[in-house]
Amino acid sequence: MKNYLLSIFKEAESEIPALKEISLAFEKPKVAEHGDISTNAAMLLSKKLKNNPRVIAQQIVNSLKIDQKVISKTEIAGPGFINFFFTKEYVTYIIKKILDKKERFGKSERYAGKKANVEFVSANPTGPLTVGHGRNAVVGDTFANILEWVGYTVDREYYFNNAGRQMRVLGDSVKLRYLEIIGDQISFPEDYYQGEYIKEIAMHLYIKYGDSLKNESPEGIFKDTAENEIFFDIKKSLENLGIVYKIFFNEYSLYQEGKIDELLNYFKVHNLTYEKDGAVWLKLKELGQPEDKVIVKSTSEPTYRLPDIAYHAVKINRGYDLLIDIFGSDHSATYPDVMAGIKAIGLDSDKVKVMIQQFVTITDGNEVVKMSTRKANYITLDELNNEVGKDAVRYFFNMYNINSHMVFDLSIAKKKSDENPVFYVQYAHARINSILNRVKEAHLEISINNLDLLVHDDEQNLIKTLFQFEEEVELSFEGLGTHRICSYLYELAAAYHRFNKSCRILGTETKLAEARLALSYAAMIVIKNGLSILGVSAPEEM
């Protein structure tokens, strides 16, 4: 629908040039009587054209070359909305399209031949993934799916650092627990890694080596073993959610390959740095940012900005057309500095799009489940996955806009009822499959020959909802959001459940029954396609 309207509005620009100056938006009206799709274009043009929006709306309608086989009527409503009503012929066309394309319905070649990179999670190997990492992981993988659905070839990338103080503390933490196991009296610092996983790694070393490691350096076998075991578990946790990366990039390699020194030298040569209080500062004010920032501390240790700029330079130079970064909320005030740095070295920062993830609160009914990423009482991603299952984890994490704080209610995620949104959507798929199996016994077939019989309000509403899927995929891409797919699938499931309640198949005249079967099958296909984008299963029975 949207694409057709965009095309005829484009043609109308010759008569109303001001249409070129606005961002056209089409929305499904909340009330069915207001049409199938609506635009506020006239109101956007009112100030530019210095005229009443209703008058402008009429001018727009008069300039549109409308195909009467597609649009049955237009209506100017309220302060100047233009409402479009699609013909029943055009509406039923969507069923044929879905049944023809099946699992390809909703996919496009819009960005075919273009490459994208999605960097997400990127937790250092110091402990198990938390539920916060889980949200980042699920949204990142799902958005990568969306990119693939609009035609991109996508690389999923994990960026980590296995050097620096945090890793030294990790090695120290494991060694202290090892010494504790062999009977030494130790004092364990409060700011060291406290989780049970540290004790488990220490025990693995004891089982293998006994007490022979007592005099070994923490930065040797203790750190290396911890890193390897933790990274193994991180990869396993992600795989349990269906997430597999193509690229693992180590921040430390930027130092080994001279990229950090290279970048620092570039900034110095181009007079973009200065020294103050023994530190090196980047002239971010000259690059459009509010204030200058330290990129090398007085201790000669770079701040994260320097390697982050170098890392993005490496990624951009690989030749990607689009790069997606999914950061935690702690990056919200600082990633613009990195973008400014990228631009300063002559690279196209517009290729980089940033998604900021907000916090997750885990509840069990009305009770908040406490978490701490350093202490031993935090909830790991594996624990959440074991508690509610992969489908619920992926659906719930995708359900909210990543920019907003979310509450993950364990009690709802475990329910097998309509209260649980993923169950509600999956049940619609299973219900349709059950119906399709039952009608075989009644010798009914799926037929597109009599789709014009689908005139009931609930039939028409279901068809129109199915039509939205292609646009929802595109809007999810354009808006950098996965939550739209969840909202859409819930709306689709609700539309199907209403249709199923009011429009019988068995016991209905054959031609109508077979047309309703075609509609049901189309709904089943779209539900499955939407769930596949989310990485959620579409069960055939429940």
Explain what this protein looks like in three dimensions.
The chain is an alpha/beta fold and 542 residues long. Among the domains are: 2-85, Gyrase A, domain 2 (2-Layer Sandwich); 115-156 and 244-357, Rossmann fold; 165-239, no CATH class. Helix content is 49%, strand content 13%. It has 19 helices and 15 strands. The strands form four sheets. Strands 7-6-5-11-12 form a five-stranded parallel β-sheet. The protein has a four-stranded antiparallel β-sheet with strand order 1-2-4-3. Strands 8-9-10 form a three-stranded antiparallel β-sheet, with no helix packed on it. Helix 4 (88-101) crosses helix 17, helix 10 crosses helix 11 (305-317) and helix 16 packs across helix 18 (483-502). The longest helix is centred in the last third of the chain and has 25 residues, at 510-534. The relative contact order is 0.11. The mean pLDDT is 94.
